[in-house]
Amino acid sequence: MPAPRKYSDELRERAVRMVNETLKDNPGMAHKRACQQVGEQLGIPGATLRNWFRDPSRSPSGPLEPPPDPNARLVELERENRELRRANAILKSASAFFAAELDRPPTR
Length: 108
Hints:
This protein is an all-alpha fold. It has helices spanning 9-25, 31-42, 46-54, 70-103. Helix 1 (9-25) crosses helix 2 and helix 2 crosses helix 3 (46-54).
């Protein structure tokens, strides 16, 4: 009879997904550091998490997807940058409008 699992499949999937997201958000970060960081957050030893991350065939979610095309990522980031600049412009104009409202003397 095999030993009982200490960590559930759901926790394993979540941990590996968090490592992948950490690596996507920080492209220069080593997978060992990402596993250590996520492991500290979830209370899992970094070495255990690295084993789960390295061997996706044993993972319940199956193999990992291939890395995205760098050009497609660049286009996506440029689009997001345009959207954020537009949102910032809207917020700046709204804050200027409300600041002007606060500076006006009361009409009573």
